[in-house]
Design goal:
4 helices, 103 residues, single chain, Tetracycline Repressor, domain 2, mainly alpha, Tet_transcr_reg_TetR-rel_C_sf, Tetracycline transcriptional regulator YsiA domain-containing protein, Tscrpt_reg_YsiA_C
């Protein structure tokens, strides 16, 4: 499924474009529901811009699929699910460490 989605998502083909768009919308709707539920139950920050978070997640998933395809499927794609979920939930920062604001 990942190969089909990635192959058609970036190529213009009128026959499949609608299906890919519908798959993407369905995926993003599910992500929205999960984010909103997490915000309601207090397990996710309420100050997040949900649209940006959805794009962040979709971009990370697409990049992971692309890297897997470019590696000629040398590893199990499903093995990347847990690290991605951990990154989404816990982020990359160290809790309690204030930002340095240095660019």
């Amino acid at each position: 499924m990942a190969v089909v989605y990635q192959s058609f998502a970036h190529h213009r083909n009128a026959l499949v474009e609608g299906n890919i768009r519908e798959m993407s919308k369905m995926y993003l709707d599910i992500v929205s529901e999960i984010l909103e539920l997490g915000q309601q139950e207090g397990s996710m920050r309420k100050d997040m811009y949900v649209g940006l978070v959805k794009r962040f997640i979709l971009g990370a998933v697409e990049s992971t699929i692309n890297n897997w395809l470019l590696s000629r499927k040398e590893y199990d794609l499903a093995s990347m699910a847990e690290p991605l979920i951990d990154l989404f939930i816990r982020g990359i920062g160290v809790p309690g460490t204030p930002p340095q604001n240095k660019v």
